[in-house]
């Protein structure tokens, strides 16, 4: 008897080892069907046409046609198909991954480097399972939104989403005219972050009178590649944060991957500096938004803006609660423009968000809190 599964996946990798691991893992997941494999980009493109997958797991570095070339062709030949990249743990891999995300990849996974097949499968399973669930949820949300847009007359809100929508409208209406003057902006973001940050930060003026600190969930070397990419696109300076660095206005500091970032007073007590630590993960994350937000709450009472954007999980919620208690303004990205509506959903449901905004309005909302 045929088992009809909802998500059709094509596994693309030039090594038998990783094709085997990824195929075995996906075969164990409910509502997932591995429809085929390919060992290079050319074969992948031919199989996309015949097998019609919903999603590719896509190696970046392959002969004949690499993962970036596949993404380029998919944009015109198969725009509705998603891709999760498998990337090497190198500086070059980081730069190529940033390009892949820019080309439309949903997210990326680092290839585990253990010599043990069992350990590699365990490591991949831990990251790919929630990613597949998030991608499936994104497809469902997009289908609902497309269906609502196609209906004539009044656009009704599904019962399951009505409470959240009403809360969003009420909070936005109540708080849109009440802004404090912030001296710092702290942002938490994850899945979908690199592309969202590129869109948002290009709207921030070069002379912004406050620093922006960002926790983007990423491994080491990848945040450096992200900072470099964003700095080339934005009018405001963007850099990877360094330990002991003094906070300064009109600068965006991105937390280094694999480490924690917080704000502390310097030895004189007169200046605020960045402290990079090897403290343990929080919510499974290094860097963690909660870790940063707590430090901002403690040092910038009534003078901070907290921003929570697209991403899986709930990292940032508890830190934002503390910031809110200390008088911060909280901004959240809305569901329709989020790749994954997880990190922003929790603070909204908790009632601590002042403004819920689409991606193209977040920069404007940030600037308003600094220049009321």
Structure write-up:
- This protein is α/β, with parallel strands linked by helices and 372 residues long.
- It has 2 domains: 7-143, Response regulator (Rossmann fold); 176-370, Rossmann fold (3-Layer(aba) Sandwich).
- 42% of the residues lie in helices and 19% in strands.
- The protein is built from 12 helices and 14 strands.
- The protein has helices at 16-28, 41-51, 67-77, 91-102, 117-150, 159-175, 193-201, 222-233, 289-299, 317-325, 345-349, 359-370, and strands at residues 7-12, 32-38, 55-59, 82-87, 107-110, 184-189, 212-216, 237-240, 251-254, 260-265, 272-277, 304-308, 329-333, 355-357.
- The strands form 3 sheets. The protein has a 7-stranded parallel beta sheet, with helices on both faces. A 5-stranded parallel beta sheet has the order 2-1-3-4-5, sandwiched between helices. A two-stranded antiparallel ribbon has the order 10-11.
- Strand 4 (82-87), helix 4 (91-102) and strand 5 (107-110) form a beta-alpha-beta unit.
- Helix 2 (41-51) runs parallel beside helix 3, helix 4 packs across helix 8 (222-233) and helix 7 crosses helix 12 (359-370).
- It starts with 6 loop residues before the first strand and ends with a helix.
